[in-house]
Amino acid sequence: MVTKTMNKKFYILLLTLMVSCIAFSQQNTTKTTTKLIQPPYLKAGDTVAIVAPSGVLKNRNDEVNRAKKLLESWKLHVVIGKHVFNQDDHFAGTDQERCEDFQNALDDPTIKAVWSARGGYGTVRILDNLDYTTFLKQPKWIIGYSDITALHNQIHNLGVQSLHAIMCVSLPKDLSEIEASISTFKNTLFGQPLSYTLEGSKYNKTGTTSGVLVGGNLTILHTMLGSKESIDTSGKILFIEEIGEYKYHIDRMLQSLKRAGYFEDCKGVIVGDMSKLRKNTTLWGTSIEQLILDALSDYNFPIAFNMPAGHEDDNRALILGRNIDLKVEKSKSTVKFEE
């Protein structure tokens, strides 16, 4: 009798564990394969808003006008935020003014994309005052890089794709100097297929993977830790870029992210430009590539270097929140965005 009772309890326990495992597996599958909402691609006649949620645009009228003409050459209409050229010390207007321009662009049903004029610093100061209720009913492309990573994070966590690409101040007088950056920006906005073949690197950590692309500026990703804008990279591929930092600063940020579990279930890393790195009086001793490999040595996912995206003239468009296939070899890497 005792044996029969024990056997019955054992089978009930076994059945419970099996059901739990199946439920956990299904939950994880949903988590890593759920597609984010894609805003509609642009077409001739659509309207793009230019706003400045971050740093001041002092003496940058020419670049903004250049951006306006570029969009108009693509048969798009352009509206410029009311406060774009305002200045409040470091910022393009007060927090309230910058938030107002961005909120108006989010809520206006005639606007199909919101293009940030520049980065710098300041976006984080308006995050908590933005209301995405109308935006989620009618998603639109949010465009920019650098400090705009804060917005990309916020929008990603709302379940919507966004566009890591050039900003208005990226445009030189001779647009042919950044032809590749402009063409990938335009092609992506208008829905052309997107893929890249990256220059090889002896530092590449080889492998093949797929997942949703997330990320942006490393400093901003690091400063989002502990907030609701921090991204869960589980099942995703992380893109990082940086400018003007010491190598030990970059290592410190990677170590902080690592200790916070940022890379535990990550599927891969794509490294963009590490621009204008500063030299400390005590030299780090290795290349920036080796620094990154060392910081992430505990993980088996592939790592691709030489993605032309970040704070250089060649700044190719990336759709954040889109599934990609990544193949990393020593001789080259390929990045293919799902259509």
From TrEMBL:
GO biological process: proteolysis
Active site residues per record: S146, E241, H311
Signal peptide residue numbers: 1-25
Protein's name according to its UniProt entry: Muramoyltetrapeptide carboxypeptidase
CDD domains to which the protein is assigned, alphabetical: Peptidase_S66
GO MF annotation list: carboxypeptidase activity; serine-type peptidase activity
Similarity field: Belongs to the peptidase S66 family.
Domain LD-carboxypeptidase N-terminal: 48-165
Keywords: Carboxypeptidase, Hydrolase, Protease, Serine protease, Signal
InterPro entries attached to this UniProt entry: Carboxypeptidase_A_C_sf, Class_I_gatase-like, LdcA_N, Peptidase_S66_N, Peptidase_S66C, S66_fam
Entry keyword Protease: yes
Organism the protein comes from: Olleya aquimaris
Residue span(s) of domain LD-carboxypeptidase C-terminal: 210-326
